[in-house]
Amino acid sequence: MEDALDPLDRSLLQELSRNARLSWRELASLTEVSAPTVRDRIRRLEDMGVITGFGVELSPKALGYTLEAIVRFKPFPGKVHLLAEKIITSTRIVQCDKVTGEDAFVARMLLKNISELDALLEDFSTHASTQTAVIKSSPVRMRPPPLD
To answer: May I ask the CATH architecture of the domain 61-134?
Structure first.
């Protein structure tokens, strides 16, 4: 599929990665093509599955979540499916990956303050042991894949 992307596709994807709210007219101006061409290209990229959606990014801090933590979950024998369900339904876990190794899951959890960490982790104590690291900063947040 990567071979199906030409320089115009890549340029449109870069501009949309910077600002997904750009109009077709604004994208046309930035890429020096017509608005109908932009519309057709974006629809084709959606049909190809390259563009999978458009969304809004919320600020955890503005919503009262002052801390983030990385939680590594090592499931107890026979509990991996129950643990997965618990992780999926936890609203405080905003990202989770199933990984290789002893820790089956690595998740990013939002906290309003450090004092609520123990209570949040207690919900998982019957399914897994946990290791937690509080995030001091995030020099690289989730970003789109490189387009080069």
So the answer is: 2-Layer Sandwich (3.30)
Q: What is the pLDDT along the chain (148 residues), one digit of tens a residue?
A: 557 899 999 999 999 999 999 999 999 999 999 999 999 999 999 999 999 999 888 999 999 999 999 999 999 999 999 999 999 999 999 999 999 999 999 999 999 999 999 999 999 999 999 999 999 999 998 888 888 7
What predicted TM-score, i.e. pTM, was given to this entire model? 0.82
**Based on the number of CB atoms within 10 Å of its own CB, is 12 exposed (0-12), middle (13-18) or buried (19 or more)?**
buried
Reading the block at residue 13, the tokens are: 């994807």
Domain ranges of the chain: 2-47, 61-134
The contacts of residue 73 (CB under 8 Å, 6+ apart) are 83, 87, 103, 104, 105, 106, 107, 124, 127, 128, 129, 130
**The two three-digit tokens of residue 19, written as one number:** 């600002």
Q: What is the CATH number of domain 2-47?
A: 1.10.10.10
